[in-house]
Structures are given as C-alpha cells and as structure tokens.
Amino acid sequence: MALIVQKFGGTSVGSIERIEAVADLVVKTKQQGHQVVVVLSAMSGETNRLINLAKQIDSRPSSRELDVLLSTGEQVSIALLAMAIIKRGHSAVSLLADQVNILTDNMFGKARVEEVAATRLKHELEHNRIAIIAGFQGRDIEGNVTTLGRGGTDTSAVEIAGAIKADECQIYTDVDGVYTTDPRVEPNARRLSHVTFAEMLELASLGAKVLHIRSVESAGKHNVPLRVLSSFKPDEGTLISFEESDVTSNVVSGIAFNRDECLIKVHGMPQGTKHLAKVLKLFADNGIEIDMINQINHKVEKVDYAFTVHLNDYLNALDLLTAEQQQFDAHAIDGLTNVAKVSAVGMGMKSHSGVASLFFDSLAQENIDVMFVATSEIKISVLIDEKYLELAVRALHKTFLTENE
Amino acid sequence: MALIVQKFGGTSVGSIERIEAVADLVVKTKQQGHQVVVVLSAMSGETNRLINLAKQIDSRPSSRELDVLLSTGEQVSIALLAMAIIKRGHSAVSLLADQVNILTDNMFGKARVEEVAATRLKHELEHNRIAIIAGFQGRDIEGNVTTLGRGGTDTSAVEIAGAIKADECQIYTDVDGVYTTDPRVEPNARRLSHVTFAEMLELASLGAKVLHIRSVESAGKHNVPLRVLSSFKPDEGTLISFEESDVTSNVVSGIAFNRDECLIKVHGMPQGTKHLAKVLKLFADNGIEIDMINQINHKVEKVDYAFTVHLNDYLNALDLLTAEQQQFDAHAIDGLTNVAKVSAVGMGMKSHSGVASLFFDSLAQENIDVMFVATSEIKISVLIDEKYLELAVRALHKTFLTENE
Fold first, then answer.
1. Which of A15, A80, A124 to mutate to test binding with chain B, by most B CBs within 10 Å of its CB?
2. Closest by Cα among A145, A105, A94 to B75
3. What letters, b where the CB count within 10 A reaches 16 and e where it falls short, cover A317-343?
4. What is the CA radius of gyration of chain A?
5. Suppose A202 and one of A125, A345, B155, B269 were both cysteines; which one would form an S-S bond, judging by CB atoms 3.0 to 4.6 Å apart?
6. What pLDDT digit, counting tens, does each position of B256-286 carry?
7. Least CB-CB distance to A79: which of B16, B19, B65?
8. What is the ipTM of this complex?
9. How many other CB atoms are found less than 10 A from the CB of residue B296?
10. Cβ–Cβ contacts within 10 Å for residue A177, how many?
C-alpha cells in the first residue's frame, strides 16, 4: 500500500465525461489498495470565463478580488469529482485551501506556498476517504484567498505530497510523459521512462508544456518522486526522482530548445566589472531576466558584452540600453531576434568526457555556427541562427539519443 | 450616520450591467455617510447551471458536495461587485462565510445559522471599507461548507444585520415593496409604506414572493428593521418593524390568499382526542404539515374532521389516511382541491371590533360560502371555493383597503 497524490489538469476534468473518467481512474487506484489524495485544476475554459467577467468590470481588476473569483473554478471541479466518486460507492470529501490549511504569502495571483498542514488530510485518509483538494489556491496568514499563478495546481500537488510524505506525486496531463526532444521536430523522439530532478530542471524548456519549473523545484526540495502521465491513456509515464537511472545507458537524456531567446550586444564599453554591473542593474531594476552573458575582449581597454533575454523583453531592453548608452560610454548597441538556443542535458555528462566534443562535431558536420556557449555540470547550451534549429536538434538527437537498431 | 446592511438577490446581480448598477447604489449609500455591508446572492441562472452539472453526475448528488458546488455562485458575485466598487474609488472587500465566521448547523442544503461573529466585519467597517459578504452560505462547526436553502440570502443578511446591530436591513429585490394584496388580482392594490413583523408573518403568502418567512422571523428575533425595495428603481419601499404605524389608519393592512391549500375530510370517526391524535401523528410522521383543523360533531359518538394541507401533500395524505381507515374506525375519507384560502391581516384588529362582521358581510354580499374559518389576534382566514377567490379578494380589498377619493 502506497500513499499517492494524483493531480489532474484542466483538460483532464474539462467535461462531465472527463470527470467521470477521472473518477474511474481514482477509484481504480484506491481499489489497488492505495491511499489516494487528488488535487484538481478548474475545468478547462472556466478560468478564462471568469477572467472575462472580471475584465468586463475592470481591465485591471483588484488582484485580491480576482483571486476570490478565480478560486471558484477549482471548487466546482472538486465538488463534482467527489460526487462522481461517492456515486461509485467510495467515501470522498472535497477540501478547500482553508480546510487543509494551505498557507501562502500574500502575493495575490502568484502566491508562494509556505506551509501545508498534514493533520486534516491524515485524518481523512485514516477514515478511508479519498481526499479531493482544490489546487491553485491558498490562504494567506490573514485568511485572504490567494492563487498560485501559472502551473499552480502542479505546485499545490507537490506541496501537499511533501506535507503528507507521499510515496509518489502523479501529474496527469494531456501528454504521456517527458520526451528526449519535441516529437514535432524529431519524429524519432522517445519517451523517457526516468529522469532526475536536475535533468528535469534543465529540460524545463521541453518540460514547460508538461510541468511548471516551480513544481519540479518543490518536488526536489521535498524529495517527492514525480510521475508525468496521460489522463487519457494512463500507463507508466515518466518518473522524475533523485535516483539516477541504471537502466538507460544514455549519457544525454534530452535535447531541449528554445526559440524565445534574443541576443543583445553592447559594443566597445570600458573594461571593468563595475561597468558590466551598471548594465546588469539596469536590467534587474526593470525586471528583465538575463539567461546567458558573454564578454569579448577586443583591445585592452574596450570590451563587447552579449546577453540573451526573452523575446518579450527584447525591445524594452534595447530601449533602456540606448537611453543609457552615453552613461555606459558604449560605442554601439544592437541585437538579433532570429536566434535560438539548443541544449543537451544529461546526468551522464558528469562522468563521461568527450560529450562536448561530440556535441560540437555534430553541429560542425551540418555547418552550423555557434554564437554563444554556456555549460553546466549536466548541460551544454549553444545559441545558433534560428533557421538551423530543427537541423541542430535532429543532428544532436541522432548523435546522443537515437537507438541503434 | 447609520449602519446599513443591503441585500441584493439573483436578478439584482444577474448581469455585469446589473452589478455595475448595484455598485452605483452601494457607493451612493456610502457617500451619504453611512457604513455599508452588502450581502449577495449568486447571479441569476448560476445556481441552476451548477445544479445541472451535478445532476449530470448523480441525480441525487451528495448533499455535502452540492453545498461546496453551489456556494461558488455567491463567491463569484461578491468578487465582481468588490471589483466594481474598487474601480469607483472606494475601499471594498469580499468576504466568504468562513472569513466572517457564519456558523451553522450541519444540515447540508437547509442549514440554520447559529451565530455570526461581528469582529471581522466591525474591523472592516472601522477601516472605512465596504464589506461584501457571500449570502446563502455558512460553515458548520467542523468547517464544512453549508448552504441555507430557499431564501437563504435574506436570512444571511438579517443574521448579519443582527450580529452587527445594524440600523436597517434593506432587501433589494425585483418588486418594490409589500402590497395590500396582489396587484394582478386587484388593480387598486397599494404599496404599504409600513407593516409590523407580526403582520408580515401573517402576510407570508403575499410576502413569500418578496421575503422568505424565516428571514422575517430572524429579523423579528434580532429586532432589526427590514426594508423591502426594488434594485431597479430604488425608493422608500416597505419598512417592516415592531412599531405600529401611526400614519396609516387602516385596521386591515393586507388581503392575503393562497391557492395551494386542499381540504381533506375524515367522516364519522369515534369522538375523543386520542383518535384525532392518531391522525395528526400519521401526518407528522410523514412530514405533512397541516394548516387548519376543524371538527364537526354530528351525533354524540361520531365526529367529522377536516384539515387543510398543501397541494403537494394532498395525494400522499389521502393515501395514508385511506390505508389506515380501518384502524381509525372512520366511515369515509375524501377531499377537495378546488379550494382557496383568503385572509385579512392587520394589527388594528386587536383594538377594533366589528372587523369579522365586516369581513363576512363582504363575502355574503357576493354570495360566497365559507367552508372553514380560522382566526388569530390579527388575522381572519377563510377557506372558499377557488372559483370565487378573485371576487373575494376584490370585495375584501374594497371594504378594508380601497381609499376613498
């Protein structure tokens, strides 16, 4: 008997038929002898319907009241699922954030979970009930309703799993696991049976469609094994845990990529960390996150700096730098949007040498130039011309991940 | 400066436009220097939408979970109204049942309010905020969500007004007050500027469309003056309080009527209270409420009993009595559905004699026979053939309530 948390997203509970299917799945897990806690999102479309009502009143509605409004979405889905499970002859109880004491900070719309009390949940499980909890929502210390923002229900599920020391937190979604790369780019992409938390964090740009990065971080922190599976055709899915797989012999677990990065260059600035610090402060003060940073020394006294930022911040970043160009004593400022980042990620890199060599060889054979390199213990990332992205992904996948027949 | 509770029903918040209009009305009251607490129903149609979702899953859904589901309706309307008021530059805060500590018993779907804590509300009012509370819902001692059933939001408003010792509880609805009788039957019906709680309870069959009887009882218990007004064209409406009006000189305040009563007769039963008690126990055990009871002595040893029951209970009551006819030693059992009850209600009856005489004179002049009579200190009710109902109402209204030009 295991203690299992099952999280179902909006499309998984998007209609009465889907809710009935989820009820069958939950009951099946219970009948296998497990204790089950379920965490739900709102029915798909419901959150947008509610936001639309709010926008009709105020284009920038009160964030406190928006959270009160949006949190009704999950309340509806948990009540309906509880009814469906009860109809199947099992005990079930729906629980709201205040009933399980999901304590968050008071950042309405993007609150962070501070604590989940296990007492009430343990009580329900001891009485053989299936507990069905509203995801995405919490209460601050004053009892105000809060919501957790994007990917919030994943975070709820992981925090709850951590609080009750669940054996596994299963994330049911509309894809059936984490893949070696995006199958739309590389038809030979394979589903991974297992990845580590460290790999999953690096694979976030792949996993973003599957798991919100914050929930992966939380799962790592609480040491709760995560499993990503499809609610439409549930099978083994992909397990994410601290243990390194001894089954897969791949050095590299996945090829991730990101089309949303842009390159910004500041030419001919005076050398010295204090000048770079000024530029970085300007970005930080304006909420612009930098992914990669590069420094090119031309002469003794002058350097070029290159940064990558998200496409959404590109124009803003260029404007800010241009306005301060004189203060920075920079020769010129320019940028590129038609770039993309491609990365190879794998725990095996730590112990296997020669990965970087194979990586650049693969790209060189396709005549793909690299503008930028960034590495970590388990990752190599490069920035390339966006038009070569698919080619680069396929080349790297073939080198590291395509199994020999 | 007064402390005012304003309650708005489903049609009053039935659309974004209506919510905007309510926001204007609330803000206007605030600007007049009053402290305002608002209690809302769900947007009209929303509760039915939610019930329909539940019924798709289970024709008899779990009552606990149905309450979790239905309570989202009010949560949506309070958040939207708070947004609309904040947009108008005033401070407002939406509050759920658990945030105001509306404690109820655990009768899901028809819970009774046991206590409302004034602390949180007083705190919001002291900080100059408009408090907007979800009506219709509460929490039991274990923190489960409960709902109050039919007319629940009126009850919420009155209980809250009682807890904070409000100067007035205003019930905004789609009619503009309490009338001397139904204007669809008697075009000369006038709106009453003032009635007493005692009269309002007797006028319930008129007031049922306006106020739920339980909320009138609660208002009387807490001694909170109630005012019924239209949210579509707000004016003075009708005030309901303990004070007797010294403005209106009418002995009778209103003519109430009810088409939903039926007559049941048990013929030729043995005399004696114990036999009647058996019949009454049969009704009570089966949840059938009796309105009027009459006893007709034919001979020394045999009596006929007549009862009136609600139309919904008529067939059930007849079946039950027929099944037990032998045990009751009754000669025959029959009934009539084409009957109606008409009543004259007024505090003035206590001190004015001759009301009964005028009452029966009016009916006699129209050749209307009376089957049944019941009286209280402030009411005379009779049961008549349903086909004479409108005629009886007009005749009585003319006698007691039509003002001389």
1. A80
2. A145
3. bbebbeeeeeebebeebebbeebbbbb
4. 24
5. A345
6. 999 989 999 999 888 878 888 888 899 989 8
7. B65
8. 0.82
9. 11
10. 22
